[in-house]
Specification:
One of its GO terms (molecular function) is ATP binding. This is Sigma-54 dependent transcriptional regulator. The chain is an alpha/beta fold. It folds into three domains: about 1-145, Rossmann fold, CATH 3.40.50.10770; about 175-345, 3-Layer(aba) Sandwich (Rossmann fold); about 350-425, Helicase, Ruva Protein, domain 3, CATH 1.10.8. Helix content is about 45%, strand content about 15%. A six-stranded mixed beta sheet has the order 3-2-1-4-5-6, sandwiched between helices. Strands 8-9-12-7-13 form a five-stranded parallel beta sheet. It has a two-stranded antiparallel ribbon with strand order 10-11. Helix 19 (about 470-480) packs across helix 20. The longest helix has 18 residues, at about 85-100. It is elongated, with a radius of gyration of 31 Å. The protein starts with a strand and ends in a 6-residue tail after the last helix.
Length: about 500
Amino acid sequence: MHTLLTWLGTKDLDNMLNDEHAAISSIATKSQQAFDKIVILSNKDEEKWGHFERFLKKRMTISNRPANDIQVYKAHINSPIDYQSIAKVAERWISKLSDEAETLSINLTSGTPAMTTLSVLIGKSKSNVNFLQASPSNEIIEVNIPIDFAQAYVQSAAKGIASKVTSEPRMCSAFNELTAYSDIMKSVVYKAQKISGSELPALILGETGTGKELMAKAIHQGSLRAQKPIRVINCGALAENIVDSTLFGHKKGAFTGAEKDHPGLFEQADGGTLFLDEVGELSLNVQVKLLRALQQGEITRLGDTKNIIVNVRIIAATHQDLPLLVAQGKFREDLFYRLAVGIIKMPALRDRLADMPYIVNQLVEQINHLNSKHPNFVSKNISEKGINVICSQPWPGNIRELWSTLNRAFLWAESSVVSEQDILNAIIKKQNLNRDCDISMSYHDKVDIVQLTDDMQKKYVKAALKASGNVKKHATKMLGLKDHQTLTNWIKRLGIDSEK
């Protein structure tokens, strides 16, 4: 498909009244390449648009050229010389049309200098865009812009890099809030930095509480969209009956209580990022509507008939196994592949032992700061043994569970130093019912180990030793054994190495 994009000029309208050619009609009927689609942008004289469409279709028909897809679209700009709003409109349309068409031609004659300038700047970034203009006698001129903006940018960037080669290397500031001392987390941050510099959709996977939203915000802040908004929505809380209004907005009167027009999250995030947390919770009906917005780059407000073009980068996250949901028919396969381009897997806290002391210190600082305004609060720290106990626990709830546990420990601890026992007492008892996976236990967990096979016994004994910090007295109670000598005998029989 070959497309022409143009602004509607004053001379185009004036000549139309005299049934004479101007730039748009001349280019449309005389260009070497016939256009299958013509998109015309305008912010004024709306009452004349229909007349101009009919005039141009008539001219195209006389010239034996396609005339079925010609339309004037409203451009929401502040003024004909407002670069910011013009750039926003031009970026939307040029990106959309260049993606759809084999070639996109842009008319540089009609419209204001601001419109022409921005059309060139944005259009030069697309490989299939060319430029046309009409002479005063309505002759068609193919315009060759003799500047390679990409090369000019590369040269400028190279100079900037060269001037900083003696500086110390440092992590992108957008990722500074992510604690990354462990090898596994360093690898994750490295991948996230590469993804942030692209425009690709991102899918963040990981257990609950692993920091998926923090990672999404870091990716946004490290991207070229950092100065644009990021909007966050928990899809698990997105009721199906309000999804249209929440994501896509609504027009006044669309439903009872809709007292004014409301832009949805896609419009609010235009130019920026939309973070869909727990995307695996979306119903199939909602997934269909989301897929349409992603594929076409346009939305329709509830109660409206006009399409709105949006430029939004999607970052999705879930703790669920999306491929399994796809296999079960609970998540659309086409939507999955649309989202799963740049994939980031957030590691569980138990796999980040090197990060644990730093994370604990950060949380301790936050707890002390949050409670500092209370007149009776005394700032507290955690003992070294307390930190060792924290590192030995599995934390299935990850950072959220650790945060809650530390708050409980700080609340009940009598001393200014939170002890090992204070931490152990703050851990909530949980039941581990899944015996088909690797075993992890918290301090208060109990099992009847006698009824398990030797293999399962070994896993539970090792898990109890780890969770108790290799204190046999505690591990014995956790396993439901008679005394610690019995545990010692089991350790020998099962061939388990023990520090104590």
